[in-house]
């Protein structure tokens, strides 16, 4: 990679989950400071800016797509979201065009991720050790998100077929992975349960609420 040439960046924003541990609610539509989390993520991603961006929906697709229909967003709908997150990663990655240097996979339920966090990971990717094609943040020994992949690795994984599992690849190929050690706790805060919401509100003093019609 030419260090003087700007990197071409793709992003996959995952919003296909059922939110089963949240009472089957679309977590990406939780509001923080008046804005749904998915809207906040899209604004952060566009500040980078990314060359290509897709949003993967599945469960709750009607509500989620309607909530951001006013934005110029390319959706990819997972017809089988029950197959889990990796099926959504595959669909999103496959929807991106070529000529990218890296692809960032972003979760829509991380309330504090902002443009500076995304830039931090992009810098970590640019400085990653030779021979590695994956970068993910580690905070106090806890694995975080988003995760950044080289486009070459994405292409290799997609060629391996419909069972390509990016998480399994990361676990099985530690030599190809750069664990980016950081103190940035934004990378390890997500919302899976009502208890997570309560802990977040207590920790930050910010109140989360459901979008209209979801309470």
Overall, the morphology is globular
| Helical content (DSSP H or I, runs of 4+) | 25-40%
Please, how many domains?
Answer: 1
CATH fold group: Spore Coat Polysaccharide Biosynthesis Protein SpsA, Chain A
Number of helices: 7
Q: Give helix and strand order, one letter per element, not per position.
A: EEEHEHEHEHEEEHHEHE
Class per helix and strand makeup = alpha/beta
Name of the CATH architecture: Alpha-Beta Complex
The termini sit apart by 49 Å
Low-confidence stretches: none
Oligomer: single chain
Q: What is the CATH superfamily?
A: Spore Coat Polysaccharide Biosynthesis Protein SpsA, Chain A
What does this structure look like?
- By secondary structure, this protein is of the alpha/beta class.
- 31% of the residues lie in helices and 22% in strands.
- Strands 1, 4, 5, 6, 7, 8, 9 and 10 form an 8-stranded mixed sheet that branches. Strands 3-2-11 form a 3-stranded antiparallel sheet.
- Strand 2 and strand 3 (35-36) form a beta hairpin.
- The longest helix is centred in the middle third of the chain and has 12 residues, at 115-126.
- The chain is globular, with a radius of gyration of 17 Å.
- The termini are far apart.
Provide the descriptors you would attach to this structure in a database record.
215 residues; alpha/beta; Spore Coat Polysaccharide Biosynthesis Protein SpsA, Chain A; 3-stranded antiparallel β-sheet; 31% helix
Would you summarize the structure shown here?
This protein has 215 residues and is an alpha/beta fold. It is built from seven helices and eleven strands.
């Amino acid at each position: 990679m030419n260090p003087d040439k700007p990197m071409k960046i793709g992003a996959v924003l995952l919003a296909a989950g059922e939110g089963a541990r949240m009472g089957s609610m679309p977590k990406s539509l939780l509001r923080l400071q008046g804005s749904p989390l998915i809207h906040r993520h899209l604004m952060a991603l566009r500040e980078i800016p990314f060359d290509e961006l897709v949003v993967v929906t599945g469960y709750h697709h009607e509500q989620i797509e309607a909530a951001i229909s006013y934005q110029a967003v390319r959706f990819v709908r997972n017809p089988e979201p029950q197959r889990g997150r990796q099926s959504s990663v595959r669909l999103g990655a496959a929807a991106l065009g070529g000529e990218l240097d890296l692809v960032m996979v972003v979760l829509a339920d991380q309330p504090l991720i902002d443009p500076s966090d995304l830039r931090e990971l992009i810098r970590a990717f640019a400085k990653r050790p030779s021979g590695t094609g994956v970068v993910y943040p580690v905070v106090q020994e806890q694995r975080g998100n988003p995760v950044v992949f080289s486009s070459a690795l994405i292409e290799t994984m997609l060629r391996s077929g419909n069972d390509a599992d990016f998480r399994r690849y990361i676990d099985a190929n530690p030599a190809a992975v750069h664990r980016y050690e950081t103190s940035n706790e934004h990378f390890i805060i997500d919302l899976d349960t009502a208890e997570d919401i309560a802990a977040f509100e207590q920790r930050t003093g910010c109140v989360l609420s459901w979008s209209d019609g979801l309470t």
